[in-house]
Design brief:
The radius of gyration is 14 Å and the shape is globular. The chain has one domain (about 5-110): NE0471 N-terminal domain-like. It is built from four helices and six strands; from the N terminus they run E-E-E-H-H-E-E-E-H-H. The chain has about 120 residues and is an alpha+beta fold.
C-alpha cells in the first residue's frame, strides 16, 4: 500500500511530529524517536549489522522539515543531523511499529549500559 500523508505538523513545544495519513491513521512521533531511527547511513549503516546505537538524544529538537519531492521529508535536528530522508512509507512504519521499536531502543541502551537522561 502506498501511504500518503494528508497532514504533517511540527509540534515544537511537545517535541513531536504529528502525521495524519489518507487511510485515517494518525501518529505522534517524538523527536528523539525520529532521531534514533533516522534512515541515514550514519544511523543505519550500509548494511545489516552496521547500525549505530544513538545515545544522548533525549532532548534533541527539530529545527526544520524540508520536503523532498512528493515522497519524503528531510528532518533537520538541532544536533546537526540532517542526512536521512524520511519517506512516507518509512514514517508510516515508524508510527505503526512505534511501541516495539521504542522498546527495542530502550533495551539496546540498557544493554550498552547507557543511563537514559530524563527529558
Amino acid at each position: 500500500m502506498d501511504h500518503q500523508p494528508s497532514e504533517i505538523r511540527l509540534q515544537k513545544k511537545s517535541r513531536q511530529l504529528s502525521i495524519d495519513f489518507e487511510d485515517g491513521s494518525q501518529f505522534e512521533l517524538p523527536f528523539e524517536y525520529l532521531r534514533v531511527y533516522s534512515p541515514s547511513a550514519e544511523v543505519k549503516g550500509h548494511g545489516p549489522g552496521q547500525e549505530t546505537l544513538q545515545t544522548g538524544k533525549e532532548n534533541v529538537r527539530v529545527t526544520a522539515l524540508e520536503p523532498v519531492g512528493h515522497y519524503a521529508i528531510r528532518i533537520v535536528f538541532d544536533d546537526g543531523h540532517n542526512t536521512g530522508l524520511y519517506t512516507w512509507k518509512y514514517l508510516y512504519e515508524l508510527g505503526a511499529e512505534r511501541e516495539q521499536r521504542w522498546q527495542s531502543y530502550l533495551d539496546r541502551l540498557n544493554a550498552a549500559g547507557y543511563p537514559r537522561q530524563p527529558v
